[in-house]
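**Backbone geometry record:**
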Amino acid sequence: MRPDTPAETVDHTAEAARLERTAGLYPEDSEALLLRAAAHLELAGDRPTATALYDRLLSSTDGLENPHLVRALKASNLWEYGHEAEARAIIEGVRVASPRDPAPWVIVAEALESHDELEAAHDTFTAAVRLLLTDVPQPPQPTHPLLFGRHRVRRMLGKSHDEWDTLADTVHSLPITLDELHDPKRVWSLGSENPAELEAEITRLRAELGAYREALSRPFPVAILHWPATELSELLEAYPTLASEYPSHETHLATIESALRELSSSGTPNLGIVTGTVPSYEAFAASELSSPGDATLLPQYATTLAARGRAVAWPPQGQSACWCGSGRAYGECHGSDA
């Protein structure tokens, strides 16, 4: 599916089948591709087949990058077509595992919320926030949905603001406050005959829709290709003609950072970095019926990795690790002179 394809014109069943075929061609990316395929199956209403795809991933002998995310998605999907007991058991397993990735927490908490299990949803959001944000100076972007979801559920439960709600307010950037967006009384205004009340609610809903679109969208990034030191050494040893592209690893890293900053200063949005490996690059070159020593393949390879969901957003948020793999925070590494 092209990034600019209108959502209402998507054949979700066909798109799921295409992603499954692509996963067969690129086994190193099969987890991300099959998760996207399962999402399309859910949108198509074929929830049993989506569950089978989640089971296929969980039974994989190769191991998963994020098994908790797959389990959370499976639980949410199961509950939607009547398998509540199994969904609850999986959700409890995710909670007990205490993953360090916020995504599984968000999915299981929102599954509970959508089925009116507000106290359980609140407890789940709170457990995640305490685990991931205690003594963290600035909440990373992926944790924002935890703060917003917790704030929303607390408003529905009639709970007063606490320190985590205040933190949610500080990271919220829309012109309408979280208290307005999450006001339980808003639903009553939708039945009002007062034009002013209806217009105010439409404004709120537009702002909320914008927030959901921003959170859920996965736009096609402008991605720069990054080679780790060992991969670059192997690449240049096998294909010395590429030495002119990469005089040294240090120069390669500096070039990536400067190129991204230049793109950012020119107003280019949605920048990212994709990390290459020699076997993956050789497979790509073979699929293009070309030699890996052809430097013109490099930007095409980067674009292909980005299209397969391998891009990492640049610049890293807050105190996140630097994209170069040094293990240091971005602000202390390549972002130190930003």
User: Anything to note?
Assistant: The first strand starts at residue 222 and ends at 226. Residues 163 and 169 are 10 Å apart (CA to CA). Confidence is low (pLDDT under 50) at residues 1-7. The longest helix spans residues 195-216.
